[in-house]
Write a structure and sequence with these properties.
- The complex is a heterodimer of chains A (177) and B (444).
- Chain A has 177 residues and is mainly α.
- Chain A has two domains: 83 residues, NADH-ubiquinone/plastoquinone oxidoreductase chain 6, subunit NuoJ (Four Helix Bundle (Hemerythrin (Met), subunit A)), CATH 1.20.120.1200; 47 residues.
- Chain A has seven helices and two strands, in the order αααααββαα.
- Chain A is globular.
- Chain B is mainly alpha-helical and 444 residues long.
- In chain B, helix 4 crosses helix 12, helix 8 runs antiparallel to helix 10 and helix 14 runs antiparallel to helix 15.
- The chains are: A mainly alpha (177), B mainly alpha (444).
- At the A-B interface, helix 2, helix 3 and helix 6 of A face helix 5, helix 6, helix 7 and helix 8 of B.
């Protein structure tokens, strides 16, 4: 039998990478450095998904975020003249709102973790027992299965939203279509 | 010690990949073997590309270093390692330093799931093809950051072109891949698979390579992928990011020495990686050609002898050229060297005839032979097609390959539908239609 890969060591390693990456994203003055820190964070997140026995989600994370969206980010950032923004002093005029929002989010996390409804924690005690090699099929049946599928409508609405965004971008970018 | 030997031996009886069996020792051995094999392949490819391209253009190509320039790649490697490694003064040093490593990591990591045989892969992931596409799409990050960090115009333009190009062609590539994944679901349970080994086994159980599936749909998918993969690896005729006549060397203009050689290594291993995706998805992976037409034990034996015969032929070619070497004393060492090389190749060929070796190697041989055909095509394209202009490139990607891919995907989905589903959709629709007609007629 294989020893489990999901040891606490890897979790702390990936979590530390994510936190350091996240801090670097907001502290670097150079936007390209920020983007690269964000890529590191996203890849570490893909590692966390793998530890949760969700290889499909991890693969999609790598393809969409690290490979697709971040390339477009870099594409845009490269066209900006960086020299001015690097010399400028960093400022944040919304720190009060930021602190309130962060505190609210932290409080929400703690509340979710500690509340019990009808004697049961909101968090399940064990993980869902999909086999690692059935993850893709499990997601497909959650989305599309006629009986077990419960997220079909949400999924289709989300894709409609993306379509609207694409059309909106084209309409705004092109004066004459 | 005894336990260790038992641990090492325990894998030999299993019929799984080292990663699947969870055997660390054999996984390490496989990783080292794949790495060594790739390095040799890149070296060989370097020499072959120069030689074949030269012969296509009626030149001789490298002839000076070693017999027929055989030692040229090694001389080049030594030259590159000894060269000064320059970081431009105004460059972003950290990003400049990291970029080549991103490209190399992305190019080599994908080989974790490449199936050289039913058990000859480092591991088999159930998201195999997604993993390959995802990790190989990370290499564009390295290219973009390399171009930006150089802080120079040509590299920046190269990087811009490369990111636009890769993002565009990934879409068409993905659509072609999805059509294959639909084809894998044509079995009793109608569950498809994303695993690389699973995809080849689906072709084995359906008795048909996916190029010929739903003719001509499989062929169209293969064509889309074959075009998109050339664009993904920045090779001629889609080599705009490094177009030497316009951008000096594109995104790696400012790189020299060891770091430049990393880009070189990554480019060639990425070419091998995408070719092995194409071979796995459409050309039956490790399966030998004509399994239905030429079957029976005699043909099995004939096809199993191919690896040995190939190496023997290469050895014979070396001996033939040894005989043709100039008889001048200055060429004596080269003649002896070529004869020795031929002898080594022939010896490998003879070893491959031993039945125990033969059965273990024949899968790897067929896989490598198919990939090698793709590598030849890469050189052939470079010798044949002129480079696309950037607007033409975008037009091919978005206006030709993408619509083709969409139509292909829908057509494959319709053909791959199970009969129950057909009945479940068509019959209610028909009843609904008849009902409307009926009410219309009765209201008249």
């Amino acid at each position: 039998m294989n020893p489990p890969v999901a040891t606490p060591f890897f979790f702390y390693l990936l979590a530390a990478t994510m936190i350091v990456g996240g801090i670097l994203v907001i502290t670097r003055k150079n936007a390209v450095h920020s983007a690269m820190a964000l890529i590191t964070t996203l890849l570490a997140q893909a590692g966390i998904y793998l530890m949760l026995y969700a290889p499909f989600v991890a693969g999609v994370q790598i393809i969409l975020y690290a490979g697709g969206i971040m390339v477009l980010f870099l594409f845009v950032i490269m066209l900006i003249n960086m020299e001015r923004s690097v010399k400028e002093r960093q400022f944040n005029k919304q720190w009060l709102v930021g602190i309130v929002a962060a505190a609210a989010l932290g409080g929400l996390f703690i509340a979710v973790y500690t509340t019990t409804t009808k004697g049961k924690m909101l968090f399940p005690e064990g993980r869902m027992s999909f086999g690692e090699d059935q993850n893709t099929q499990a997601i497909a049946s959650l989305l599309f299965d006629r009986h077990a599928g419960q997220y079909m409508f949400a999924f289709e609405i989300a894709s409609l939203l993306l379509l609207v965004a694409i059309i909106g971008a084209v309409v705004m970018a092109k004066k004459r279509i | 010690m005894h336990d260790l030997i038992l641990y090492i031996q325990s894998y030999l009886d299993s019929d799984r990949t080292p990663g699947g069996a969870g055997n660390l020792f054999w996984a390490t051995v496989y990783i080292l073997l794949v790495f060594a094999g790739l390095s040799v392949a890149v070296i060989a490819m370097n020499w072959l590309e120069r030689k074949i391209l030269a012969h296509m253009q009626v030149r001789l190509g490298p002839m000076r270093v070693g017999p027929h320039g055989l030692l040229q790649p090694i001389a080049d490697a030594i030259k590159l390692l000894l060269k000064e490694d320059i970081i431009p003064a105004e460059a972003d040093a950290i990003v400049f330093w990291v970029a080549p490593f991103i490209v190399v990591l992305a190019a080599f990591t994908v080989f974790v799931v490449v199936p050289f045989g039913p058990t000859h892969a480092i591991t088999d992931m159930n998201i195999g093809i997604l993993f390959m596409l995802g990790v190989s799409s990370l290499s564009v990050l390295g290219i973009v950051t390399a171009g930006w960090a150089s802080n120079s115009h040509y590299p920046l333009i190269g990087a811009l072109r490369s990111s636009a190009q890769m993002v565009s062609y990934e879409v068409a590539m993905g659509l072609a891949v999805v059509s294959v994944i639909l084809m894998t679901s044509l079995n009793e349970q109608s569950t498809g698979t994303l695993s690389m080994i699973g995809i080849v086994q689906a072709q084995l159980s359906q008795g048909e390579w996916f190029v010929f599936k739903f003719f001509p749909l499989g062929l169209i998918g293969f064509f889309i992928f074959a075009v998109a993969m050339v664009a993904e690896t920045n090779r001629a005729p889609f080599d705009l990011p490094e177009a030497e006549s316009e951008l000096t060397a594109g995104f790696h203009t400012e790189y020299s020495g060891f770091r430049w050689s990393l880009f070189f290594l990554a480019e060639y291993s990425a070419m091998i990686a995408v070719s092995s995706i194409a071979v796995t998805l459409w050309l039956g992976g490790w399966l030998r050609p004509f399994p239905n037409w030429l079957n029976g034990s005699t043909w099995e034996l004939v096809f199993a002898l191919f690896p040995g015969v190939t190496f023997l032929l290469l050895g014979v070619m070396c001996f033939y050229n040894t005989a043709r070497m100039p008889k001048h004393p200055l060429f004596r060492i080269q003649t002896i060297g070529l004869a020795g090389f031929g002898a080594v190749l022939a010896l490998i060929g003879l070893i491959l005839f031993i039945p125990e070796v033969r059965v273990r190697v024949v899968d790897i041989y067929w896989f490598s032979a198919k990939v090698a055909a793709f590598m030849y095509m890469y050189i052939w394209y470079r010798g044949t097609f002129p480079r696309y202009r950037f607007d033409q490139l975008m037009k091919v990607g978005w206006k030709i390959l993408l619509p083709m891919g969409l139509v292909l995907l829908i057509a494959t989905a319709v053909l791959a539908m199970r009969t129950e589903v057909w009945v479940g959709i068509v019959v209610p629709l028909w009843q609904w239609f008849v009902g409307i007609l009926h009410s219309l007629v009765s209201s008249l």
